[in-house]
Write a structure and sequence with these properties.
- 24% of the residues lie in helices and 32% in strands.
- It is of the alpha+beta class.
- A hairpin with a 2-residue loop joins strand 7 and strand 8.
C-alpha cells in the first residue's frame, strides 16, 4: 500500500484527546451503535494507555488506542475512522503507527478484536487470525495478532499546525424499520 503524504498521525494529548474521544463517540455510539451512551472504559482512565489521532490534511479523521496487557503483549483497539475518510489510507496509517509504537516500547506481540468486515484489511497489514470469531461488544469479532518484532518504524508526519473536527452529521437509526 502506498503511503499518503497528507495524513499525519500522533499521540493525542490536551485538546486533541477530546477530538480522539469525539471521533470514537461518532463511530461506535452514534453510527455503528455498538455501544450505548459512550465507549469510554477503564483503559481511557489509565495514564499508560496511548491514545492516537490521525488527520487528513487539517481534518481530524481517525483514532486508535493501545496499551500493554502483560509484559511484551499489547492490545490495540478502538480503531475508528470517520466515514468521509474511510476511502483514504487513514485506517492503515493508524494501525501502522500503533504497531510501530508498541514495538518501539518493547512489545513482542499485539492482539486485537476485529469486526468481521475488516479482517482482510488487517491481513493485508500483516495481521493473522488467532482462533475463531467470537462475540465482542454484542457482535462477532475475529481475534487477530501481529508480530511486533516485524513492525517497521513509522515515518509519516505528525500533527498538522491547524486541526479541525468535521461538524457532526446525524446518522439515521439503522435499527428502525
Amino acid at each position: 500500500m502506498a503511503r499518503s503524504p497528507d495524513i499525519g498521525v500522533w499521540r493525542a494529548a490536551g485538546p486533541d484527546l477530546a477530538r480522539h474521544y469525539a471521533i470514537r463517540q461518532r463511530v461506535f455510539v452514534l453510527e455503528q451503535r455498538i455501544l450505548e451512551l459512550t465507549d469510554l472504559d477503564g483503559h481511557d482512565r489509565d495514564a499508560n494507555t496511548i491514545h492516537v489521532l490521525a488527520a487528513q490534511g487539517s481534518c481530524a479523521a481517525g483514532t486508535v488506542r493501545l496499551y500493554r496487557l502483560d509484559g511484551e503483549l499489547w492490545q490495540g483497539d478502538r480503531l475508528a475512522v470517520l466515514p468521509s475518510h474511510r476511502s483514504s489510507m487513514v485506517g492503515a496509517e493508524l494501525v501502522r503507527f500503533a504497531v510501530a509504537t508498541a514495538g518501539a516500547l518493547g512489545g513482542a506481540q499485539m492482539v486485537a478484536q476485529i469486526q468481521l468486515p475488516n479482517v482482510r484489511f488487517f491481513e493485508r497489514l500483516g495481521w493473522t487470525r488467532a482462533g475463531a470469531p467470537a462475540p465482542y461488544c454484542g457482535r462477532d469479532h475475529q481475534p487477530m495478532v501481529y508480530d511486533l518484532t516485524q513492525a517497521p518504524p513509522f515515518l509519516l508526519p505528525g500533527r498538522p499546525a491547524e486541526l479541525m473536527l468535521e461538524p457532526l452529521v446525524e446518522v439515521p437509526d439503522l435499527r428502525a424499520g
